[in-house]
Write a structure and sequence with these properties.
The structure holds two protein chains of two kinds. Helices cover about 35% and strands about 25% of the residues of chain A. The two termini of chain A are about 40 Å apart. By secondary structure, chain B is mainly alpha-helical. Chain B folds into two domains: about 100 residues, Rna Polymerase Sigma Factor, Chain: A (Orthogonal Bundle); about 80 residues, Arc Repressor Mutant, subunit A, CATH 1.10.10. Chain B is elongated, with a radius of gyration of 19 Å. Classes of the chains: A alpha+beta, B mainly alpha. The interface between A and B is large, with 45 and 68 residues.
Amino acid sequence: MRGDNLEEALKDVLRHDVSVEAPHLEGLEERIVAELEGRLPKRGFVETLKQLCAPTRGARLGQLAVIGATAVVFLLVGTFLVGRAPFLGGGPNRTATMSAAAESGNAVLFLMPAPGAQSVTVVGNFNDWEPTPLSDDDGDGIWTASIPLSPGRYEYAFVVDGRWWGQDPLADEYVRSFGDYSSVRYVGRAGEGA
Amino acid sequence: MSEEAPKGVYRVRDEVSLLRSSLDGETEAWGEIVTRYKEAVFGLCLGFLRNRADAEDLTHDTFIRAYENLRRYRLEKRFSTWLFTIASNLCRNRLRHRRYHPVLPPPEEVSGGSDPAVVVGREDRWARIRRGLNRLPDAYRAPIVLRYYNDLTYQEIAEVLSLPEGTVKTRLHRGKAMLKQAIEENGVIHHERG
């Protein structure tokens, strides 16, 4: 098969396969619009918030007390979760809460405390999800790797003895897909791609 | 929201206007964007993942993720390239998930459906191409799909995959060579790293 023929055949195959399967996309736009509309805040709730933010003189003190009490409850729940949830503060080793990808010049330091681990690697969209090994040369249980990265948004996770560890506590944010967390790190200016 | 605006109005509006309306919360405008791009995004996902159910899921997720991140989109970039970048990242996450979660059932092969009008010889050749694509390493299949299904330039593929343009050209060249060999040897891929 000559190169040109292969390219034409590739186009034909890919387009044909899509045309065969495309009917399954019927109604996708309606489903997406419905999903997005379902996420918009309820008008009643917004109105309630507005009312709370612009209270009458007589009710101001009482409403401020309600807002204050709500804030305290959120703070307490948040503190409780930070103490409990592994993706917010824990790790494979609960005493080692410092796991970080810190920037150093052009290189980003990936750091994972995992005492006793046999192997620690980092996978991410910067290495096409192929494992880059971390090392623990001094045997203190802190595994590190320094990887040069250009400015952008990077998704990554650690793999400790073959086990996925997607919640770097000091990551900029997390994404959750297919039931697993991955960490997100912004290097330099925030990446434009999502 | 634009409950007053009839849906047909969106069909004649230009892309930038639709994106601006979407940013203002007009989800129906985003629905028109979905209509215009759903097949291209689905084709990308199907090509990357070689599995219809996964491709459908990720087509949906791409449009939701893009809507959520629309404020990050910059008009100087082609919208389609930005959208394909999101789809590509989601696909690579899914492929990564498959790699680290081998308990999942293996992806089904895209059958291409049945078309009574096709010539038998062409069907056989197309079946070999499909088998070759299914077995091609992800890193080589992705640029091939973007080039021969989505019709992107080398530069656009480089942008979508966050790769240097030279690497894109190399992977396309090697990918096609592997595919050609696979077609001749009935779907067997000989992958050399590097």
